[in-house]
Amino acid sequence: MWLGAIYLVARLPPHAADDVAAVRTLAEEHGVALIPGSACGAPGHIRVCYANLPLEQTREAAARLRRGLQALVDGGAGRRV
């Protein structure tokens, strides 16, 4: 179980379980910086920190993250080669 007020941990879809590749692709293609779950003992997951940004920047970051995660779910990011 993950507890904390400023982190969100999410499981990646099976076809994109390489969390390091997913994080790299999300950063390079969608401009969001995440932590691979394997760095926190949770391979196949990502960790999102959502603190310390002004509201408008938080909204923009959330929109980029949503687009990136949707691409990942659709098979376009972080896929194992």
Provide an overview of this structure.
- The structure is a single chain.
- By secondary structure, the chain is an alpha+beta fold.
- 38% of the residues lie in helices and 15% in strands.
- The protein contains two helices and three strands, in the order βαββα.
- The protein has helices spanning 19-30, 55-73; strands spanning 7-11, 35-36, 45-49.
- The protein has a three-stranded antiparallel β-sheet.
- A hairpin with an 8-residue loop joins strand 2 (35-36) and strand 3 (45-49).
- Helix 1 (19-30) packs across helix 2.
- The radius of gyration is 12 Å and the shape is globular.
- It starts with 6 loop residues before the first strand and ends in an 8-residue tail after the last helix.
- The relative contact order is 0.27.
- The mean pLDDT is 86.
Low-confidence sequence ranges: none
DSSP, total strands: 3
Distance between the termini: 30 Å
Helix/strand order, N-terminal first: EHEEH
Shape: globular
Give a quick account of the main beta sheet: strands, pairing sense, barrel closure: 3 strands, antiparallel
Compute the average pLDDT: 86
Radius of gyration: 12 Å
- Percent of residues in helices: 25-40%
Helical segment tally?
Answer: 2
- Major sheet: order of its strands? 1-3-2
Structural class: alpha+beta
Q: So what's the oligomer here?
A: single chain
Q: What fraction of residues sit in β-strands?
A: 5-15%
